[in-house]
């Protein structure tokens, strides 16, 4: 058995951070909790050990700095992100109709793209995140919405 490369480990830790950020933003949205207290909770109580399981609600190996940055950035730009997301969604799917986890995921993806994450990286990462939360058509919706946003910004990939 070969050890994962440092690049693979770093990518995994960043993907886990994005999954955790989606969960944290979902929690903020559903409970109206202060984002800073949710970040602290995630770091203190969910970042246990590398043997802890993500399926058990833990975030082993997460890039904690990235987790904090994503949550803070998304919350600080949420009004702009939500306006953008509303414009990107089909008229038949208003924001209120979105699954709350899907809404949090789209917010984080758009927020990261607004801060300069290359579109192809954002789309690939958030497709991975979408597949970890959903087994239906939601990943296709994530791909379509993020690609549409990227094209509007001048960097789409047509996946």
From TrEMBL:
Is Transcription regulation tagged as a keyword? yes
In this chain the NusB/RsmB/TIM44 domain maps to: 16-151
Metal-binding found in the keyword field: no
Q: Which SUPFAM superfamilies match?
A: NusB-like
InterPro entries named in the record? NusB-like_sf, NusB_fam, NusB_RsmB_TIM44
Q: Which UniProt keywords apply?
A: RNA-binding, Transcription, Transcription antitermination, Transcription regulation
Biological role: Involved in transcription antitermination. Required for transcription of ribosomal RNA (rRNA) genes. Binds specifically to the boxA antiterminator sequence of the ribosomal RNA (rrn) operons.
UniProt lists the family membership as follows:
Belongs to the NusB family.
Protein name, please? Transcription antitermination protein NusB
Per the record, the gene is nusB
């Amino acid at each position: 058995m070969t050890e994962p490369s440092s690049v693979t480990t770093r990518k995994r830790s960043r993907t886990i951070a994005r999954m955790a950020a989606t969960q944290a933003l979902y929690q903020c949205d559903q409970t109206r909790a202060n984002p800073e207290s949710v970040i602290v909770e995630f770091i203190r109580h969910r970042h246990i050990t590398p043997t802890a399981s993500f399926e058990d609600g833990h975030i082993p190996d997460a890039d904690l700095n990235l987790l904090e940055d994503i949550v803070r950035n998304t919350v600080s730009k949420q009004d702009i992100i939500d306006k953008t997301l509303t414009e990107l969604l089909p008229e038949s799917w208003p924001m209120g109709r979105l699954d709350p986890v899907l809404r949090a995921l789209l917010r984080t993806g758009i927020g990261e793209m607004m801060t300069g994450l290359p579109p192809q990286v954002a789309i690939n990462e958030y497709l991975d995140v979408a597949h970890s939360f959903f087994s239906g058509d939601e990943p296709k919706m994530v791909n379509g919405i993020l690609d549409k946003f990227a094209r509007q910004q001048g960097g789409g990939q047509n996946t």
